[in-house]
Amino acid sequence: MSSDDDDPEAALARYADELAAGIVDALPGWVVGCVEARMIQWSGEVPAEIRHEAEAAGEQAQAEVGPQIIELLRLDIDDQRVPPLSVLRDAVRFPTRVLEAAGVPGIVRDEVDERLMPNDHYGLAPANFADVDPRLHEPGMAWGAAKAYVHLARRRAEGRR
Questions:
Q1: Which long-range contacts (CB under 8 A, 24 or more apart) does 114-123 make?
Q2: CA 82, CA 94: separation in Å to the nearest integer?
Q3: Are 9 and 31 in contact (CB under 8 A)?
Q4: Per-residue pLDDT for the chain (161 aa), expressed as one digit of tens each?
Q5: CB atoms near residue 35 (< 10 Å)
Q6: CA gap 47, 77 in Å, rounded
Q7: FRET partner for 25 with CA separation of 20 to 30 A, picked from 11, 59, 61, 143?
Q8: Is the dihedral of CA 73, 76, 77, 78 positive or negative?
Q9: How far is Cα 149 from Cα 8, in angstroms, rounded to an integer?
Q10: In this predicted structure, what is the pLDDT of residue 41?
Q11: What pTM was computed for the model?
C-alpha cells in the first residue's frame, strides 16, 4: 500500500503531475494532428512545408503552454482559477496560425461554439483531454476524481457541503 492510499492530497499531486507530463508530451503531436486533419479536409494533402510549420508550432506550443499547464496543475485546487482544458483550448492559436498562413478557410460552426470560442475558427478546441491525445483519458479522469474527492473532503472538514 502506498502512502498515497492514505493521503488524498498526495494522490492528487501525483495525478496532477502525471496529467501535466502527459499533456506536455502530447502538445506537439496534437498541433500537428490538428493541422494535418484540416489540411486534408481542405486540400486532400499536407505539403511538406506546412507539416514543417505545424511541427514548429507544436514545439512552440509545448514550450509556451507546457509550463502554464505544469504551473496550473501544481497549484492548490482552491487556487486554480481556470481548468487545464481552458488553457488547452486557448492553445488552438498554434495550429490556427499555421492553417491561416496556408490559406485554409475556417469551418462553419454553430452560434454557441462561435460565442464560447471566438478564436477557434477551425473547430479544434478539445472538449476533453482525450481529444488532445487518447492516452490522456485515464490520467485526466484520475486527476478529476481525485480533485473532486479532495474538494469535497475539505468542504466537509469545514462543515460545508
A1: 117/89, 117/92, 119/92, 119/93, 120/89, 120/92, 120/96, 121/96, 122/34, 122/38, 122/92, 122/95, 122/96
A2: 20
A3: no
A4: 345 567 999 999 999 999 999 999 999 999 999 999 999 999 999 999 999 999 999 999 999 999 999 999 999 999 999 999 999 999 999 999 999 999 999 999 999 989 999 999 999 999 999 999 999 999 999 999 999 999 999 988 888 76
A5: 28
A6: 43
A7: 11
A8: negative
A9: 8
A10: 95
A11: 0.91
Among residues 130, 137, 108, 136, the alpha carbon closest in space to that of 120 is found at: 108
Radius of gyration of the chain (CA): 18
**Residues in Cβ contact with 123 at an 8 Å cutoff, skipping those fewer than 6 apart:** 107, 109, 113
Q: Which three cell numbers stand for residue 80?
A: 486554480
Least Cα distance to 26 among 72, 94, 99 occurs for: 94
Q: What is the pLDDT of residue 1?
A: 39
Assess contact for 133 and 26: CB atoms under 8 A: yes
Sign of the dihedral defined by the CA atoms of residues 121, 127, 129, 135, in that order:
negative
Name the burial class of residue 26, with classes exposed (0-12), middle (13-18) and buried (19+) by CB atoms within 10 angstroms of its CB. Answer: buried
